[in-house]
Amino acid sequence: MRDAYREELAEITDGLEQMALIAASAIGRATTALLDADLQLAETVIAADDRLDQLQRDLEERAIAVLARQQPVATELRTVVTALRISAELERSGDLALNVAKLARRRFPDHAVPHELHATVLEMGHVAQRLMAKAADVIATRELKTALELEGDDDAMDDLHRALFRRLMDDRWQHGVEDAVDVTLAGRFYERFADHAVSVAKRVVYLVTGTYADDLPPQ
Amino acid sequence: MRDAYREELAEITDGLEQMALIAASAIGRATTALLDADLQLAETVIAADDRLDQLQRDLEERAIAVLARQQPVATELRTVVTALRISAELERSGDLALNVAKLARRRFPDHAVPHELHATVLEMGHVAQRLMAKAADVIATRELKTALELEGDDDAMDDLHRALFRRLMDDRWQHGVEDAVDVTLAGRFYERFADHAVSVAKRVVYLVTGTYADDLPPQ
């Protein structure tokens, strides 16, 4: 493989890793903004989303340029096609962090999350951020073992999501419908964010093994 | 362009159109299942989603095969890359119809949607189905005028979504938190479904004009 070609493929991978790290940071900041009712912090997440959208467009143009110029086949072709799919997942993750930040902004100066759910939502934010940071790592290293861990890690998010719903449905819920609506939406945003991180990892698994992660024997 | 090549590109477009029509039908049936608390109908939507996932995988493999074999450039290259992105939007739309069907199943034999919101949710289902059917049309015809209409059509969904939230937040809401949670989720599913239809149309606009729909002068 010529150096310029190798360089182009490496730049695409770097771009994806950068997008994943921005998304991970965005969901962390959005969670803090939500729990602290911090409008200024929420606004930084909202502004950062444009950056992610721009990176996605750039990456797509770059992928198309590589396809046209290098006419890759086999592994390199799958790398470029996978990059297109991963960049879409990451752009969408950024939108979900944006949604969390917008929730904080809409309820400002009130808190959207009642105190007794603070710990659960904080943990959801941490799990989401950790999953996406790990997805960034998987993009960079293509390590199969780490990639396959993500689905298991996501179980923690599912447990938290279920716990959140149990609290909502509890007869002792005292916070009225507006809080219930916002907590429902927040729960959904975190769950979807985590799903995208898992999808990114699955895409890398497919790239490395040629097999969908669901069809692999458990590690 | 050789006939076999032209044929391969046409098959990809046909596959996308078929996916969009399946998604449109799925959201229509899911809405009926939700409003009628019809478990059997809900199950057909849940089963149809596998079909959509399979079509998406097939289409992706076919796109990769065309890239490898024909090494397309210029318009044909963009067509194939756009097809990859559109297929992901359509697969995700199917998941959202699935989510609506699962909502119906989870609450069966109860109704998840209170009577006084029946008309609003029905209309959301109709708008969603119409938008996706129109997206299928845009995929097949690449008609710029129709493609550009979709964003305007989506305003109807936004209005319905706002109306739904107003009812939820209304002090006269008598249906408790469980219904509020389910209506919130349903509203979100319909809104996202419509967004995907709009994204499909925007992708086609970009393919035809080389310009993002947001940057075009209003028609």
From TrEMBL, chains A, B:
<comment type="subunit">
    <text>Homodimer.</text>
</comment>
<keyword id="KW-0813">Transport</keyword>
<dbReference type="GO" id="GO:0005737">
    <property type="term" value="C:cytoplasm"/>
</dbReference>
<comment type="function">
    <text>Plays a role in the regulation of phosphate uptake.</text>
</comment>
<feature type="domain" description="PhoU">
    <location>
        <begin position="121"/>
        <end position="204"/>
    </location>
</feature>
<keyword id="KW-0963">Cytoplasm</keyword>
<protein>
    <recommendedName>
        <fullName>Phosphate-specific transport system accessory protein PhoU</fullName>
    </recommendedName>
</protein>
<comment type="similarity">
    <text>Belongs to the PhoU family.</text>
</comment>
<dbReference type="GO" id="GO:0045936">
    <property type="term" value="P:negative regulation of phosphate metabolic process"/>
</dbReference>
<keyword id="KW-0592">Phosphate transport</keyword>
<feature type="domain" description="PhoU">
    <location>
        <begin position="16"/>
        <end position="103"/>
    </location>
</feature>
<dbReference type="GO" id="GO:0006817">
    <property type="term" value="P:phosphate ion transport"/>
</dbReference>
<dbReference type="InterPro" id="IPR026022">
    <property type="entry name" value="PhoU_dom"/>
</dbReference>
<dbReference type="InterPro" id="IPR028366">
    <property type="entry name" value="PhoU"/>
</dbReference>
<dbReference type="InterPro" id="IPR038078">
    <property type="entry name" value="PhoU-like_sf"/>
</dbReference>
<dbReference type="GO" id="GO:0030643">
    <property type="term" value="P:intracellular phosphate ion homeostasis"/>
</dbReference>
<dbReference type="Pfam" id="PF01895">
    <property type="entry name" value="PhoU"/>
</dbReference>
